[in-house]
Every structure is written in C-alpha cells, then in structure tokens.
Write a structure and sequence with these properties.
Length: 334
C-alpha cells in the first residue's frame, strides 16, 4: 500500500478502513521544563519530529488547571513526570467560594495555549494536535484533594457552584486552544472509577459537566479523545460520550480491547503496558502486545498507544520497538 501521511492514516482509521500501517501515538511529560512555554514548545517539537507519531497529544503540566486559583504544585520525582499539588486551595467546604471565574488566556492556563500555538505553527498542520483538558471534577479534586469526596456527599450545593465556574473556564480554554491550532482535545477524567464514586455520583458531578464541554466545542474539532484514568473505570457510562477516540489502561483494568470494541463505536487507543512492558519487556514483549492489540480489534479502528503517560525513563529502543512492530503488522497483512 502507498505510504500515507498522518492525517490520511488517521482518517482511514476513523472510517474503519485499513491503512499503510497501524497508527501509533505515544506521549510523555517533560518535568520542570514544561513550566516554561518556550521550553515546552521546543521539547514537543523535538519529540514529534524525532518519532513522527500519528497524533500529537500536547503535554502541559498536569496541574496547570489549578495554579491560577492559587494551588501550589511541584515536581517530586514521579516516574511519569507528573506534578503534584503540595498546597490545595480548598481545605474547608466554604473555600469552594474562592473559585471565581478567571481568564484562561492568561496565567498558567494561558501559557499552555501559547505553547500549543507555537507548536502548531511550527508543524504547519502536518499532524493532528490535541490539547490536554481535564474534566471539571478532576480539576475540583486537584483543588481540594481528598476532601472532595466528603463535599460530594455532605455539601453538594457548594461543589456544584464551583463546578459551574470550572466548567465555564474549561470551555473558554478549549475554545482558545482550538483557535490557536489544536485540532481537538484530549479530555481526561480521573474520577470515573467505581473505586472512587458510585455511578450516580459521577453522573451528577462528572458526566453532566463533561458533556457540556464536549457539546460546547462540537463542530469546532476534527477529532477528540476521551481518557479514563485509573482502575475499574465506568466504561459503559462513558462509552456514549461524543468523541472519536477512547483511551484507558486497557492492559491493567477492564475492559480489554475486544470487549470495549462491542460497546464503543469509535477508535480505541491502547494496547501497551507502559508501566511494565515498555520499561522492562524488551522488543519481543513489546511486539507481542502490539500484535495482540491488532488481533483483539481485527486491526481496525485502533491506534497503538499507552494506557496513560509514558514513564520518563522509557528508552528510545522501546519507542522504536513500538513503531517497528506497528509497521510490521501491516507488512504481514500485505
């Protein structure tokens, strides 16, 4: 088959058609450097130009959504390069009143779209770019850490008032991201887990706000990805979200790719165990996971990817092994 560019490969995959090779998208944090828009731009461009992934998930620091409200954060050496909240904003229920509307074109929010815009201009539309956006309830948890769960059950009105504001700011941030060059969003929820909430709780405090954001950007995007973080995710509850791509830790928690295919009509993104196989498995183990993902999905509507962000210690050899295996799948099929 004639080689395809990134867009043609993705568009064929979205239609459920075969392409010249199985698409691949891997992403990682750039800890500490990601706090500077210029450095984040340069590192993102180097990452994409080196590996030529079929989709570029933009990787701002995971705490950007709470810093403008006053949360203090730090990189404490996490294996995946993520920052943590060291000083939350909401310590008592009445602190939810501190969450007022902010302009996402300035501050920490604004820096992420400045960096994305610079990246998009440099890449010139050659690859789909998704801005990372956190669900309102995920942002609320980072603002309050574990007291969020008590307020869900004991002070729902106070939390809903804050979620209303967070949702409005998130919508404005998404629209700005699309205006500066993003082709869609990577929408991450970290609370849609049966280990954390009941289904009814997530419907009330999570899903209604999630869908409001996705509805607000409908028609402005070429492709969006949903990421459900954690174990025992509420896959059935999320499977009707209006997104084209769905990503979760399919090697670590249910459902696997084959069962997910029966419930979600779009493209599945996964197949790799980034915590074990990419770090310790070697070329053969990586190739086995890629092949198994292709078998589970019949090689259609699949993008090979991690369950979540790569560990920063992931070697170039492992990344190359993923790309080689994906290309080999098409060579065998041909």
């Amino acid at each position: 088959m004639k080689p395809m560019d990134h867009w043609r490969r993705l568009e064929a995959t979205l239609r459920g058609e075969s392409s010249d090779c199985v698409p691949v998208a891997l992403w990682r944090h750039f800890p500490v450097d990601d706090m500077d828009a210029g450095k984040l731009t340069a590192l993102t461009l180097a990452w994409q130009r080196k590996w030529q992934f079929d989709l570029l998930k933009f990787m701002p620091p995971g705490t950007y959504g709470v810093e403008d409200w006053g949360a203090k954060t730090a990189y404490a050496g996490a294996a995946n390069g993520a920052r943590v909240v060291t000083d939350p904003v909401v310590r008592r229920t009445e602190d939810w009143e501190k969450i007022r509307w902010i302009d996402p074109r300035s501050g920490a929010y604004g820096q992420q779209n400045i960096a994305l815009g610079q990246t998009a201009r440099s890449l010139g539309g050659t690859v789909p770019i998704l801005q990372t956006v956190f669900s309102p309830l995920t942002t609320a948890r980072k603002l309050a850490t574990e007291r969020l769960f008590a307020d869900i059950r004991c002070h729902p009105a106070a939390l809903h008032a804050a979620l209303r504001i967070i949702t409005d700011v998130t919508i404005d941030f998404c629209i700005e991201a699309l205006s500066v060059g993003a082709h869609g969003i990577f929408f991450a929820t970290q609370l849609a887990s049966h280990r954390l909430l009941t289904t009814v709780e997530y419907e009330q405090f999570g899903k209604q706000y999630d869908l409001e954001i996705l509805d607000a950007i409908r028609g402005r995007c070429r492709v969006n990805m949903l990421h459900a973080h954690g174990d025992d995710i509420m896959f059935d509850l999320l499977s009707d979200y209006p997104v084209e791509l769905f990503n979760w830790h399919d090697r670590l928690t249910d459902p696997d790719l084959s069962r997910a295919r029966r419930h979600f009509p779009g493209v599945l993104v996964g197949g790799l165990n980034e915590h074990h196989t990419l770090l310790h498995g070697g070329r053969d183990a990586i190739a086995d996971e890629v092949q198994d993902a292709v078998v589970q999905t019949d090689g259609r509507k699949l993008i090979i990817g991690p369950g979540c962000v790569l560990p920063v210690e992931t070697s170039d050899a492992s990344i190359q092994a993923v790309l080689d295996a994906a290309r080999n799948m098409e060579a065998q099929a041909a």
